[in-house]
Specification:
heterodimer; A: mainly alpha; 0% strand; B: 2 domains; 6-stranded mixed beta sheet; disordered C terminus; transport (chain A); transmembrane (chain A); cell membrane (chain A)
Chain lengths: 329, 549
């Protein structure tokens, strides 16, 4: 078996184990929160009988271990379950059209991936180019300006950046919509326009990290003998950086890019709220508030899965950039 | 032909350390004519590389040329813009670095890097440059010249990489090549083929060269003229033959004298004496691959056994087996006739104490955050149980033994010591355990000749005073000649020959020993030519080694 394939399979197996542990941790954590779905939905003035009735309906009167394994059993058969809110609504109001968790999450997840994709398409090339230029003109005014501005943007709260962008790009110069009105069946172009402002906000958040790693990884290599050799061959400064330093600096850069992409999938609730963007973050926060365990679990597994897959992809790419592993002796 | 190719006048250079500039080249003149090879020789820190790079108009970070003039073919390199210099570098002036393994970019193939300079400078098209590269590889006698260029640097051996780098320097047919210690990192047998290749190609294209090295015997083969540097100043300069036969300055004479240090022979040990260390048929593996095959030898009290061989021959692995760091798969190790557990974790404190080690790189073997006193006090406390006043006194004694006055050195950090002094501290640390047996792993190979000789003399004196036994790992046969009582020759993880030193240096030898011995450069400027003629064209380096298998 090729070594790369072996590593991938090992990591995937480890990933599955991680998902399992994550599901236990989340289930335990949500159960340790005060109150449960019945209390959350009925509020403080609820009668004990009403609460007990809802608990019985949803199976919440079962011990937690039983509930976990029932959920796990369903999960393994590909059934993410039905949210408590949906079940409760149905048992009170009747009606057969039950939306499963999968039905609820699918469009939201699609939106989140679209936002992450647009952001990555802008931020990654932007950050790497800035990093290369900063390394090329290191310690110059340009380098300092880039460092200061990216550090400022990463240090500012996301909502603040979002409102600044709204002020300039939606209020003073109405180029882009201030609210991301994304609906089912929206045309690609409209969807892109609606996503652009949140994507720009997120770009400002993730650029600094990637740009600084690119710069540092390249500068770290500039003292290498092969870089001196390239200079002594009369290679131009830009070519020294792009052709001789960058290929050897890719592994750390790829890892930072992967971490930031994972953040774009899992950590953008604030930006979603500011732009009213219908992503998965908002759904997740509501589910936690309502102790709606099936939805919380599904979201967490998706988040954990995103981290695992992106890190795996980063590891594989790092290996592929290493000629020693690509071309064994 | 009247104008010299390179002319350097009154060069002064400074290096920056701790925010202050201090002089490293103190007024040196250098003239190089077309087609001429100038040898630049001196100890480390003499400023050879700095001066060589300055001849290209290049300075490393933290170095500056404060005074003087450098002209290349009438072009003032110090006044030239970065862009003008860039047009000369690679095209008319090329550089061959000490470590080819580090100076080739690991991310690109050899031919990719070879073609870069001619294509970037617009001398040749990519296809022409590649075809020319293969032609040069052929001239430099690289194996598979048509294919080797498509390999990555890690797929090619050190000696081959060094020749590929010479080919790369030749790619634009420059007027001048700076060779910066190109064979220092190579084994003696490999060194010969690289020297021969460099010399042939420089002659063929009539390229002028500055050949930087610390090895006199090597420079004697390569250079028309030799310039000796000491601490940034010129000591003397003369034609090679004249320099070798009649050096004028005391310093130059002292460089020659190093090779004459030799210990008087000791009487052979009694036939029934129990050896201090007896290695019996050890076979050891890294992972699943055996790297040592049935290695056996004895080391008697008060004697030095030199273990010689090329890199990869299993010398250091044998040392790791004896120390118990790498438990051998088969075989037995005895200390004073009693079996030693193979794994160091199973050895008693006293057994551990008896076997000590001194390392090649004193820099990395000493904790940079601990004072010299603390470094030596550690084994004094650990093995001898001394504390407080007694410990301090013992450390002071040890410092006296290695000729570093305790009052000056006790509280210093390793970074404040020179390379030779650091190595002495390493010796004191080994002595602190009061061992019977010390493994010296290439302890002098990172040091300059004069400093190395001091270390060898110290080790010899300590042996006489304390009755120590040494296992002396080295690839340098001159060191073997000066210090060993017995010699073990290793190749590919096995012992090919062993015996008293006198026998080893007297024919008949095992063919591999013969190859090793004859590959050691000698001061005679005709040595390389004679040797190549003797061995015949097909019998150099690789080919000779291969024939042996």
């Amino acid at each position: 078996m090729p070594p790369v394939l072996k590593i991938i399979l090992q990591r995937l197996a480890l990933g599955l184990l991680t998902l399992f542990i994550v599901s236990i941790v989340i289930f335990t954590a949500v159960n340790m929160l005060p109150g449960d779905f019945a209390q959350a939905i009925l509020g403080q003035s609820a009668t004990p009988e009403a609460i007990a009735a809802i608990r019985r309906d949803l199976g919440l009167d079962q011990p937690p271990v039983t509930r976990y394994f029932v959920w796990l059993g369903d999960m393994l058969q590909g059934n993410l379950g039905v949210s408590y809110a949906q079940l409760n609504f149905q048992s009170n109001m009747g009606g057969a059209n039950l939306k499963t968790v999968a039905d609820q999450i699918a469009p939201r997840f699609g939106n989140t991936m679209f936002l992450a994709g647009v952001t990555a398409a802008i931020a990654v090339p932007f950050a790497v180019t800035l990093g290369v230029l900063a390394a090329l003109y290191r310690n110059s005014v340009f380098d300092k300006a880039v460092n200061i501005s990216t550090l400022t943007s990463i240090s500012s709260p996301e909502f603040f950046l979002a409102y600044i962008l709204i002020l300039f790009l939606a209020v003073l110069n109405p180029i882009l919509p201030a609210i991301s009105n994304v609906y089912q069946g929206i045309a690609f172009q409209d969807r892109l326009m609606a996503t652009l402002l949140p994507a720009l906000t997120l770009t400002l958040v993730v650029t600094a990290h990637m740009m600084r790693m690119t710069r540092a990884a390249i500068i770290n290599l500039l003292a290498s003998p092969y870089i001196e050799m390239a200079r002594l061959k009369g290679v131009s400064p830009l070519r020294v950086i792009v052709k001789h330093a960058l290929p050897n600096a890719l592994a750390p850069i790829i890892n930072v890019v992967a971490l930031n992409l994972a953040y774009l999938i899992t950590g953008v609730v604030v930006v979603e709220v500011v732009f009213v963007y219908p992503g998965i973050g908002q759904l997740f926060v509501d589910a936690v508030k309502n102790r709606d365990i099936p939805v919380v679990q599904a979201c967490c597994l998706i988040f954990a899965g995103a981290y695992i897959l992106l890190n795996l992809a980063a590891d594989v790419l790092s290996i592929l950039t290493n000629p020693r592993l690509r071309h064994p002796k | 032909m009247t104008n010299p190719l390179v002319q350097m006048r009154g060069i002064r250079m400074d290096g920056r350390s701790d925010e202050a500039w201090s002089p490293i080249i103190k007024g040196v003149d250098l003239t190089l004519n077309r087609g001429e090879v100038l040898g630049l020789i001196g100890e480390s820190g003499a400023g050879k590389s700095t001066l060589g790079l300055a001849a290209m108009g290049f300075t490393r970070d933290g170095v500056r040329i404060s005074e003087g003039a450098v002209s290349f073919d009438g072009i003032d390199l110090l006044a030239a813009s970065a862009e003008q210099k860039r047009q000369l570098l690679g095209k008319r002036i090329a550089y061959v670095a000490q470590s080819a393994a580090a100076s080739f970019n690991p991310a690109h193939t050899l031919l990719d890097q070879h073609a870069e300079a001619p294509v970037q400078h617009g001398v040749m098209s990519r296809a022409e440059a590649e075809a020319d590269g293969m032609e040069l590889y052929r001239k430099l006698r690289l194996p598979n010249p048509d294919e080797i260029g498509f390999r990555y640097p890690h797929q090619v051996s050190g000696g081959q990489l060094q020749r590929a780098m010479t080919a790369m320097a030749m790619s634009c047919r420059p007027d001048l090549i700076i060779f910066d210690e190109p064979t220092t990192a190579l084994d003696v047998t490999t060194q010969i083929e690289v020297l021969a290749a460099i010399r042939n190609i420089v002659e063929e294209f009539g390229t002028a060269a500055i050949y930087i090295t610390h090895d006199l015997a090597v420079v004697a083969q390569m250079a028309d003229r030799i310039k000796v540097l000491l601490k940034g100043e010129e000591v003397e300069e003369a034609e090679t033959r004249e320099m070798l036969s009649a050096p004028k300055q005391d310093y130059t004479k002292s460089l020659w004298a190093v090779r004459e240090f030799q210990r008087p022979a000791k009487p052979a040990p009694a036939v029934d004496a129990t050896p201090v260390i007896s290695v019996q048929g050890i076979t050891a593996a890294y992972g699943k691959m055996d790297v040592l095959h049935d290695v056996s030898f004895d080391i008697h009290a008060g004697r030095t056994v030199a273990v010689v061989g090329e890199s990869g021959s299993g010398k250091s692995t044998t040392a790791r087996c004896i120390t118990g760091l790498l438990p051998p798969r088969l075989g037995r190790i005895e200390l004073d006739g009693a079996e030693l557990p193979l794994d160091y974790r199973k050895r008693s404190k006293d057994q551990l104490r008896q076997v000590q080690m001194i390392y090649q790189m004193a820099d990395t073997a000493l904790n940079p955050r601990q004072s010299i006193g603390d470094i030596i006090a550690r084994p004094v406390e650990f093995y001898m149980g001394l504390k407080g006043r007694a410990k301090r006194d013992r450390v002071a004694d040890l410092l006296e033994q290695i000729e570093l006055p305790a009052d000056q050195y006790y509280d210093r950090l390793p970074s404040e010591l020179s390379g030779g002094q650091k190595q002495r501290v390493g010796i004191a640390r080994a002595l602190a355990a009061e061992p019977k047996f010390i493994i010296c792993d290439e302890v002098t190979s990172a040091l300059d000749q004069l400093v190395a000789e001091g270390i060898l003399r110290l080790l010899a004196r300590l042996q006489d005073e304390l009755g120590l036994s040494y296992m002396f790992i080295t690839h340098d046969l001159a060191t073997v000649k000066s210090i060993a009582d017995e010699v073990v020759v290793m190749k590919d993880g096995a012992v090919v020959e062993q015996g008293p030193k006198a026998d080893m240096f007297r024919p008949p030898h095992h063919p591999y020993t013969d190859l090793l011995l004859s590959s050691v450069p000698e001061m005679d400027p005709d040595w390389l030519s004679d040797l190549l003629r003797e061995r015949g064209a097909d019998n150099v380096g690789d080919a000779a080694t291969a024939r042996m298998d």
